[in-house]
Amino acid sequence: MSVGATVTREPAVLAPPQALLFDWDNTLIDSWAAIQDAQNYTLAYFGLKPWTLDEVRTRVRGSMRDTFPALFGDRWLEAGEVFYDRFTEHHLDTLKPLPGAEEMLRWLQASGVYLGVVSNKKGDYLRAEAARLGWEGYFGSIVGAFDAASDKPATDPVHLALAGSGVATGPSVWFAGDTDIDLECASNAGCLPVLVRDAPPAPGEFADHPPALHVPDCTTLLNFVRSL
C-alpha cells in the first residue's frame, strides 16, 4: 500500500478504478482566494458580515441553489448574480493547481481510467478554469452546478458525468473529494468514496457516509492507484 494512504473501511482490498470522478475546488485546484473575495463582496452587498478564509472553506460546500436561499432569502437569485459578476473578474487569474494534480491526471488518463469532474461550482466556470489550465483534454465530462437536474449530493451529476463512458456506477467508480458532501454523493451513487485532504477523518466525523480510502493529496492517490 502507498505510504500515506489509509483504507478506512471494507473492502480491505480495492481493485483499480475504471473511472475516477473528482471534486474540483480543494481537490484538484486552489481557487479559494477568488471564492472568498466574491463571497465577501456579496455578503457586504447585502449588509452581512464577511467570512474568514477558514469559514469559507468550511461553509462553501453545497451548490448555490441549495445554499443561497438560506443566506439571502427570496433575493438569493440576485445574490447569485452579484457573486458571479465579481467571481468572473478574478477566478482565472488566481487559479492554482494543487501539487501533483496534473501528473496524477496525466497518468490516470494514459492508463485508460475514465476521468470526470463533479463539482458544485457552476459548470461554465469549471470548464473555463479547466481550459485555462489546459486540462480539458483529461476529462470525459466536466459537470458543475445547474448542469444536471440536481446538484451534489444528489446522484444526477454523477450519472451525467459517466454518460457515454461505458462505465456504470458502482465500486469500480471512485469519487474523490475533500468534504462530507463528496462522500455522501459517492455513497448515494454507489461509488467508492475517497477522502482527499491532509487531515485524516476524526472519530465519528463521517459517521453517515465514511470514506473507503483516505489520502492526504493527489500524489498519494496516484501512488496508491499505481500500487494496485
Q: How would you portray this structure in words?
A:
- This protein is of the alpha/beta class and 228 residues long.
- It has 2 domains: 6-29 and 97-227, HAD superfamily/HAD-like (Rossmann fold, 3-Layer(aba) Sandwich); 32-90, DNA polymerase, domain 1 (Orthogonal Bundle).
- Helix content is 41%, strand content 16%.
- The strands form 2 sheets. Strands 1-9-8-7-2-5-6 form a 7-stranded mixed beta sheet, sandwiched between helices. Strands 3-4 form a two-stranded antiparallel sheet.
- The longest helix has 15 residues, at 76-90.
- The N and C termini lie close together (8 Å).
- The relative contact order is 0.20.
- The model has no long low-confidence stretch (mean pLDDT 90).
